[in-house]
Design brief:
The complex is a heterodimer of chains A (130) and B (227). Chain A is 13% helix and 55% strand. Chain A is mainly β. Chain B contains five helices and six strands, in the order H-E-E-E-E-E-H-E-H-H-H. Chain B has a six-stranded mixed sheet with strand order 1-2-3-4-5-6, with no helix packed on it. Classes of the chains: A mainly beta (130), B alpha+beta (227).
Chain lengths: 130, 227
């Protein structure tokens, strides 16, 4: 019973930790929230906002975790959103300023970067997520 | 003189002398220089590219330098990668392997890469000629097929994910980095993106001209996993 409770708690915490994204670039911003298989995206730019809702799915590789969204705005116009979390390894990454840097002997602690690409009203936006 | 030495090196050498230099591309986690010692060995139908590497300066004891090998079979155009127990720059078929510290394929998509010593490192004329000859050899292998084998440790030679293996679709790069042309340098995939970015940002690639804004935008999205 204790194990079950712990499992549920861990599952809830882990979902809470990755379930939302806040991304921005050049005055554009999006807030992404998930509720089960449904996603809600609030887009804002210069005081204007749009609410997008739809479905999402996730694919996980070693270096990339990709969230794909199929959305519609309040008027039913389609929009797509991709959010990708990229893992840069402590070895072998431009995080050290080079390509094959630190092949050996360095801390293997990875660094993560998350970016989003929103296609809305025939416009493409690339935003950095925090 | 350099050209003559290069031509002689290219056609006559079966085994280069060990050559030590500071890497132009590698730095330690603290930004300190990384030193490489390389040697080329030709054995039967195989080209063996041996390397020892120190992340702790030139003073590091010989027995602590990492030792690696890339073996190109010229007959069937295959390439194998090895991380070996520390030791001399010698090669036998029975070298003892240790687990890979990093997935080789992330930086080596088509066997050995061009040798790029740091600009501040002083090379002799003979060493410069040998590097030119070795780089010409590397550039003219054509597409190589990576062959893996049972090896110790959990680090894979090549990452297997769908995203990590999605190809770079930029015509300017694909002109050389393809699997079809005689001197093609093999296909580039997203797991090579960090290396590609480094070479582009430092103007090693493309070899002629520069990427335009549209290509730069594609490249950025490719690296971030957005296209």
């Amino acid at each position: 019973m204790k194990l079950l409770f712990l499992g549920i708690l861990l599952s809830t915490l882990s979902q809470a930790s990755w379930a939302n994204f806040n991304c921005e670039a050049q005055g554009h911003s999006i807030d992404v929230t998930h509720n089960g298989s449904e996603a809600s995206v609030e887009y804002q730019f210069q005081g204007h906002s749009a609410q997008l809702v739809g479905q999402w799915a996730v694919e996980r590789d070693f270096l990339y975790t990709t969230y794909n969204y199929t959305l519609n705005d309040s008027e039913g116009k389609p929009a797509t959103l991709i959010v990708t979390k990229q893992k840069l390894m402590g070895r072998g990454g431009s995080i050290h300023g080079g390509s094959c840097r630190s092949r050996a002997g360095c801390a293997p602690k990875p660094i993560y970067y998350t970016y989003a690409k929103l296609n809305l009203n025939q416009e493409e936006l690339v935003l950095e997520c925090f | 003189m350099l050209l003559a030495a290069t031509i002689v090196s290219l056609f006559w050498f079966n085994e280069s002398a060990p050559m030590r230099f500071r890497s132009a591309e590698s730095l330690t986690l603290n930004g300190e220089p990384v030193f490489n010692e390389i040697q080329f060995i030709k054995k039967d139908n195989k080209d063996i590219w041996m390397m020892r590497q120190s992340h702790q300066g030139l003073e590091l004891h010989n027995k602590k330098w990492d030792r690696l090998a890339i073996v190109v079979d010229r007959t069937d155009k295959t390439v194998k990668y090895y991380q070996l127990t520390p030791g001399k720059l010698t090669w036998t078929e029975k070298e003892a392997e240790v687990p890979l510290k990093v997935s080789c394929f992330m930086c080596h998509s088509n066997g050995p890469r061009l040798i790029r010593p740091h600009q501040d490192w002083q090379l002799t004329s003979l060493e410069k000629a040998q590097i030119l000859a070795m780089n010409l050899k590397i550039k003219t292998y054509g597409p190589l097929t990576t062959v893996d084998h049972v090896r110790p440790g959990a680090t894979p030679l090549r990452l297997k994910g769908k995203m990590e293996n999605s190809p770079l679709k930029l015509a300017r790069c694909q002109a050389c980095h393809n699997r079809d042309s005689l001197f093609g340098r093999g296909e580039l995939t997203r797991q090579n993106a960090v290396t590609i970015s480094y070479l582009v940002e430092n103007e090693h690639m493309p070899p002629i001209g520069k990427l335009n804004q549209k290509e730069i935008s594609y490249m950025k999205q490719f690296r971030l996993g957005l296209n």
